[in-house]
Write a structure and sequence with these properties.
single chain, 500 residues, alpha+beta, six-stranded mixed β-sheet, globular
Length: 500
């Protein structure tokens, strides 16, 4: 999820503290709700009210309602409401409520729009499993961890309920999660097929067929039980591997490893980033002679693009990074949806940024422009492009010419994608791992409570026009890695083999 403000073509960034850390974290009030629905009729009414509210909030504030580059958005939003309400009419509990909200969200196929259910702990039910868990690795669904006597780690799941895995996932998991045409979302959401979270609209899997590495096959009747708490430790890093601390590491001679697991850092992680910048500057001579510099984006789910920008500047040089980004976004415009609520939201950021003069002045200008557009009845405030401060004659090439190998996880989107955009401005950048996720051109989200407080509406405040990275574009890895283990040790071994 993106939490930055950008001014094109020169990119300025600031963490939007109103949504810092985890924008989908539950509100404290969710755990103290006094009048939770209890009957089927109450759950149906609550879901319908919240879906209607999400729809109305989107109609009033989403840039897509007036986006001439996306004329089908209003119809798509109507479809999302219709399908969400259709499920809402059939539910009888919290899990049905979550599924109806998820369907409203998934129809839009955009992580920066829709709604998300945030149920309090007292409404959640224990996860159930068949004794093993799975992950998608680009060429199929594979067993990652097993306590089942017959099922082994690494075995490929080829079909369940007599349906091949790929069409089964399309009909089930991707009805409620992710974007089915995004390869990275298969990596991110594939694990869900062998998890029962209580969604009443998904069929119960009764049998699965497996293939071992030697080609032999076998079948298993599934027995679903509550997943033991002890299994969590085996699953936390299943599709991302272990999580390294932010910083510069040298795991082996001649290979530098820059870990960037988040762009939404807490206070300690902000300090870690500052130390990283110091270390990159101090060890620059060593970095320039390394066999490769690994830019590790595992676990990263976005935040502020400030942090990756500063890493790029330390490696390639501030002037050349700025110039290339300005050139890439020369034609880009930023259109802010000047609704009443969006305008008030951007105005509120001035309080947060009062101690950051440059950011304050930028937000002040955007806020004033949005207010003027609102007063005049114009749907958008269009930012004025600032003239470039650099010319080609001012910029020399970078002395950082050795390989920059970026580890890309399947969920890499938003500010994580911004990082890849920046790194890929340079020919010595190589992408390793999974296909990335993607973004629409709708950005700068804020979250709005639904009437029940059990979900939040996702409202983007602006749209990019003529952005270099097209709507829905995702990066394919230059070096695909389908290995089951994404632990640092396994990746280092594979990366070293590509350098030999």
């Amino acid at each position: 999820m993106r939490m930055v403000i950008k001014s094109s073509p020169k990119i300025l960034v600031v963490v939007m503290s109103l949504m810092a850390q985890n924008v989908f974290a539950q509100d404290d009030k969710n755990s103290s709700l006094q009048s939770l629905p209890s009957t089927a009729a109450q759950w149906q009414t609550t879901a319908k009210q919240d879906i209607e509210a999400a729809y109305q909030q989107s109609v009033a504030n989403h840039p897509g309602m007036f986006d001439s580059h996306n004329p089908d958005f209003p119809t798509l939003l109507e479809s999302a409401k219709r399908e969400g309400l259709a499920l809402a009419s059939q539910i009888n509990n919290a899990q049905g409520y979550a599924a109806a909200i998820a369907r409203f969200n998934t129809v839009l196929q955009d992580g920066h729009a829709g709604a998300v259910a945030l149920l309090p702990k007292e409404l959640k039910q224990p996860r159930r499993w068949p004794g093993f868990s799975a992950v998608w690795r680009g060429d199929g669904l594979k067993v990652y961890y097993s306590e089942h006597a017959k099922v082994s780690k690494g075995d490929k799941i080829i079909r369940c309920n007599n349906t091949p895995i790929e069409p089964l996932m399309r009909k089930t998991i991707f009805t409620f999660h992710g974007q089915v045409e995004q390869p990275g979302h298969w990596w991110h959401h594939g694990r869900r097929l062998l998890v029962d979270d209580g969604n009443p609209f998904l069929p119960k899997l009764k049998t699965c067929d497996f293939a071992k590495a030697n080609g032999s096959t076998y079948s298993v009747q599934l027995k679903w039980t509550e997943r033991p708490e002890s299994v969590k430790q085996h699953l936390v890093n299943a599709y991302n591997g272990d999580e390294l601390a932010i910083g510069l590491h040298w795991p082996t001679e001649g290979i530098a490893w820059i870990a960037m697991p988040t762009f939404s850092p807490n206070e300690q992680q902000k300090a870690d980033y500052q130390q990283l910048f110091v270390d990159l500057a101090k060890q620059r001579a060593q970095l320039l002679t390394a066999k490769a510099v690994i830019l590790d984006l595992r676990h990263n789910q976005g935040g502020s693009s400030y942090w990756s920008l500063k890493v790029a500047e330390q490696l390639w040089g501030q002037q050349v990074v700025t110039y290339r980004k300005e050139q890439a976004s020369e034609k880009t415009q930023v259109w802010w949806r000047a609704s009443k609520d969006n305008t008030e939201y951007v105005e509120s950021l001035k309080v947060i940024l009062k101690d950051q003069p440059e950011m304050y002045e930028m937000v002040k200008e955007v806020s004033a422009g949005m207010q003027l557009s609102l007063d005049e009845g114009a749907p958008f405030y269009v930012e004025k492009n600032q003239p470039s401060e650099h010319s080609a004659g001012d910029v020399t090439g970078s002395d950082f010419q050795n390989k920059a190998m970026v580890i890309v996880p399947g969920q890499c989107g938003s500010a994580c994608l911004d990082a890849v955009d920046t790194f890929k401005l340079f020919a010595n950048t190589v992408l390793f791992g999974a296909p990335s996720s993607s973004d629409s051109t709708y950005m700068e989200v804020r979250l709005v409570d639904t009437p029940s407080g059990l979900s939040k509406v996702i409202i983007p405040n602006k749209v990019y026009v003529d952005r270099p990275r097209a709507n829905g574009f995702y990066y394919q890895p230059d070096i695909p890695y389908y290995g089951l283990e994404w632990a640092t040790e396994a990746l280092l071994k594979q990366l070293k083999s590509t350098l030999e």
